[in-house]
Structure formats: structure tokens, C-alpha cells
Amino acid sequence: MVDYNPKVLDFFKKSKNLGPLKNPDAVGEVGNLMCGDVMKAYLKVKKRGQKEYISDLKFETYGCLAALASSLALMKLVKGKTLENALKITAQDIIKTLGGLPAFKIHCSVLAHEALAEAIYSYYQKQKREIPEELEKRHQLILKTQEILKNKFKEFS
Amino acid sequence: MKVYLDYAATTPVDPLVFSKMKPYFSQHFGNSASTHYWGKKAREALEKSRLTISRLLKVQPEEIIFTSSATESNNFILKGIAEAYKDKGRHLIISQIEHPCILETGRFLEKNGFRVSWLAVDNYGLVNLEALKKLLSPETILVSIMHVNNEIGVIEPLTQIGEIIKDYNPSILFHTDASQSFGKIPLNLSQSRIDLLTASSHKIYGPKGAALAYLKKGIKIEPLLLGGGQEFGLRSSTSNVPAIVGFAEASQLAYKRMSVDFLKAKKLRQKILKSALVLKGVWLNGHPVKSSPYILNLSFDFIEGEALMNLLNEKGIAVSTGSACSSEKLESSHVLSALKINPSRAHSSLRISLGRYSSEAEINYFLKELSLAVQKLRKISPFKIN
């Protein structure tokens, strides 16, 4: 059994807060069933003056304890942030909020981080907004990873 | 409520066993190799234990070598036989679903001038007998196939395997790791033509730190441990007398209770299986009939095993999983991979292992919590079950 720190377990205990969001403004999905984790980020955005804030973010997550806890930690981190600032959150920030993750579970925090980026990307696309260069790069990288995973498990699909 | 359903990992020491061990810690503490009174007391207990176990297995006492663990027995047998028979041949056949202590020893031998054929299994985990026939060669010195698999509980057809091996060449040695079956499931060494066997104490309500290697008379073997020449010169080390006394007592008790415990476990396993299969998207990993009643391995669609195991742990229930997410190497269980099941099914696997103290009330509680945990995880999963 993996030894998680108490903070991770505290987040895991709140797993019931995960789940879909009704009428989201955008959705981002990453991961692969055969790999053992899939995350779907539901995003709701509120405009206040010129700025756009995340009014709600929820994850639907299939995965291990670290994946569930990472989803919950990111949900907590983004609340009330502008989209711009939400994009500045790193996987490292998620890990810090969790009080650390075992080395072989770092990818779970990365996955949550990617799901949010994908949701924001999809939001910008829907709004026919220009995509920031950095976000476009991340999106392309995520697509590439998804493709590699899909090919890896071709025989099972 | 606290419910232990991980008996395949280890078992508690039976109070009866513990009481027999006690005098050998502080009262009869002697070194069994010493010739004085204290040594004699320890030696008598050691040899009585050997006799007890040899009678249960219907073999000669001098064919039983006590070791510290099943891992040690398996290392000793594989390495010791390979070394002793390398002039006869350098080929071994090992099944793909063996315990890591066999697999890793096999890999070690591969790096040291031996050839290992990794025998495949079917979707239920039964070794492929036709493949075995094809793999046997004039170079083959040893075939190692476990009796009961520790993850999925499948019972390998040892008698048929023994027949195939000996029909091809009676001098090829047949080893079985009986760690999950000794004292739990009937085993007939002569009928199955077994030459070498591994059994362990802590799987049958004996203490940790004692195990055995059965070596049929006349078989040559190179020792792993050199020194004072204990255990007929085959396993040097001061004998762990209290643990061995406990092992013998536990073995005797296990044989006495074998059919009672077996039938109770079978009933409880059936109950779990019946109730679990009512939940949607549940799969049995292993064989529906040719299985130990003590082990049940299930997969739950769209649920990751580590998360499920932890939810159950919060409710005081101990089980284990073959999910990659619970291993530091992030590899799914090699056993489930060998069954060639979908990797997502391996991620969602749960091993429930029953034992002597498992009760109907415990299983009812477990089934209730299992159903709640499965519902909870499915509710937050992006995949929906129809």
C-alpha cells in the first residue's frame, strides 16, 4: 500500500465533492482508461468588468487516490481566480497543496493540471478568442500524449 | 467493525500455536547444534517438528529442510538445483504467474548462463499443457509451477503436469510452490510426482520466519547458505526453534481442520461472488471452478483498485489490489497481465482473501461497504455504466 501524507488523505476523504457540473461553459478531458486515470474538468466562468473569473471548477475523475486528491486540490486552488491566473497554477502548486506526493504519483498532479488547461483552451475556442501562445503549445503537447497512449493500447480498444 | 480479508498476505498466529512456541523462547532457548542439556531440548523439538510435518506430507523426515521463508526456499531450490545439475542441462521451465521470488530467481539464472522458458497460461490462469509439452527438451533440468496462485486463486493441475514432465523424461525435476495451498488444499506429492516443494508457516496461522523446502531423497542440491552445516548440511544457520515448533503445530492444526475450514471458506466465497456479480460491470479474474476457496479476485469497471482499496480501508476493511497505481513501478500485476485481460480490468482489480476467522457477519459488512464504495467511485467517474 502506498504511504500518503495525511493531507492527501484529507482531500481523498472529500471525494464526494467530485462529479459533473451542470451547464458548464467548457469541458476538458485528459488521460486514458487503460493507463488507469482519466480526468474531465468542468469549467464555469463569470465576467466581472473586463475580467473573467472561474466561478466553479469540478472534476470527474477515474483514478487512484492521488488522482482524486489532485483533482480536489486543483478545484480548491482555482476558485475565484481569473482565467489568466488559473493558467499560471503549476503541477508543483498542486503537489504543495497536497503536502507532497510520492515520486511515482507526480503524474497524477500533472494530469489534473492538463485537464484544467484543456478546459480553458476549449472555453477560449468557444468564445472565438485568440489562444495565448503558451496555452496553444500545452494543448498540442497534450494532444500528442493522448495520441501516443491511444496507440499504445490499440489492441484493447 | 474491523474486517481482515487479506489472509493470502499473512495470517495471525493461532493462540494454540503461540502457546506451544512460548517455552522455546526463554526456557528451552538452547542452540539445537549444542550437545548439552539445553541444546538437546531444542534439538528434540526441532526433530519432532520435522517428523510432524513429514507425516502430514507423507514423506521422510530427512526430506524436509527448514528455512526462514518461502522466498528463501524458492531461491534455494531454483539456484541450488540449477547449480547442482548444470552439467546435465541448463534449461528451466517456469510459469508466468509464479510469485516474484520465483520469477526474479529465474531472471537471475538467465543472467548466469541458464535458459528459462516462461510457460504461458490461459485466460483463467491455467498453465498451457500443450505449450509445456513443446518446451520440454533434453536440456531441461527443472520445471517450477505453483499449486495455487496467490493473486487469483487458480489451482494448477499438478498431477497432469507431473505426468507430462515424467512421461517426457523421469529425471526432469518437478517443483511446486505450495505457499498458498499447504494445509489448505489436499496435496498428494507422490501422485503428482513432485520432487521439490515449498511451504510456509505464516500463511497457515503459524509464525513468520519459518518455511520448508521438501527435497525428494536422492536429489542433489547446492546450499544457499554455508556455515555450520545445519539441516543436513543444506542450510547453515542457527535453527529458529520457536518458529519451527510453531510451524509444525500450525501445520498439524491446519490438516486437522482442512475440510471444515475449506467448506466454510467456499460458502463465504460463493456468497461474495453472488452478491458482487449483482453490481453491474463486475468480473471474476481466475477460474470459476478450479479455484482455492480462500482467494477471490474481482474487477469493477471504471473503478481504480487503489482508490477502492483505500475507501474500504477507511471502513476498517483490509483487501489488496493488482492495480498498477499501487505499485511503485506503475506496472499492473504480472498475473493479470499473463491472463491477457484488458489493462483497465487489471487497474480495477481487488483481491479478497478469506481465512479461518472469516465470518458471515464480516462478509455481510464487507459486501455492504463494497457496494457503497463502488457506487461512490462510479458517481465521480467520467465513465458511466449503462
Largest beta sheet: strand ordering of chain B: 2-8-7-6-5-3-4
Radius of gyration of chain A, in angstroms, nearest whole number: 15 Å
Main sheet attributes: strand count, strand direction, barrel closure of chain B: 7 strands, mixed
Basic shape of chain B? globular
Bin the strand percentage of chain A: 15-25%
First-to-last CA distance of chain B: 33 Å
- Fraction of residues of chain A in helices? 40-55%
The total count of strands of chain B amounts to 12
CATH architecture descriptor text of the largest domain in chain B: 3-Layer(aba) Sandwich
- The CATH topology annotation of chain A reads as Sufe protein. Chain: A
**Structural class by secondary-structure content of chain A:** alpha+beta
Distance N to C terminus of chain A: 30 Å
Please identify the top-level CATH class of chain A.
Alpha Beta
Total beta strands of chain A? 3
CATH class of the largest domain in chain B: Alpha Beta
Task: List the uncertain runs of chain B.
Answer: none
- Helical segment count of chain A: 6
CATH architecture of chain A: Alpha-Beta Complex
Task: Report the order of strands and helices of chain B.
Answer: EHHHEHEHEHEHEEEHEEHEHHEH
Largest interface comes to: A-B, 31 and 28 residues
